[in-house]
Amino acid sequence: MIRTQRWSTGLCRCLDDPGNCLVTCFCPCVTFGLIAEIIDKGNRSCTCNGAIYATLLSLSGLACLYSCYYRSKMRAQYELPEAPCMDCLVHFCCETCALCQEYRELKNRGFDLSIGWEANRERQGQGAILSPVMSQTMTR
């Protein structure tokens, strides 16, 4: 039986982090880039991920299809439930809220999204206190 953890915050708790909420409302590509760099373990930079998201958003308006893939990937890494509904529906209907929730989840798991994957990995290696789940995911 697979043990499923709970999200640390609810989908509609965007104002728990008003700064991130504001950035995500006006420039979701920034928040998405920060999230994707951590979830991808640094395989693509924040700038690259954010540029892909911005391009998809400007050309088709359907960047949510790209971002829902990362929500699914994040849920698999942390054994989170597909809640309140399917990942693609969450991103299609509530893109800003979904990105804010994912940002808060990573932050609550000990990541400083503003410094990127490599700096988080170095910080973890220098004995900074990080959650056990983060330590497991920080190895390559």
UniProtKB/TrEMBL annotation:
InterPro entries: PLAC_motif_containing. It holds the Pfam family PLAC8. Keywords: Membrane, Transmembrane, Transmembrane helix. The chain crosses the membrane at residues 21-39, 51-70. The keyword Transmembrane helix applies. This is PLAC8 family protein. It comes from Vigna unguiculata.
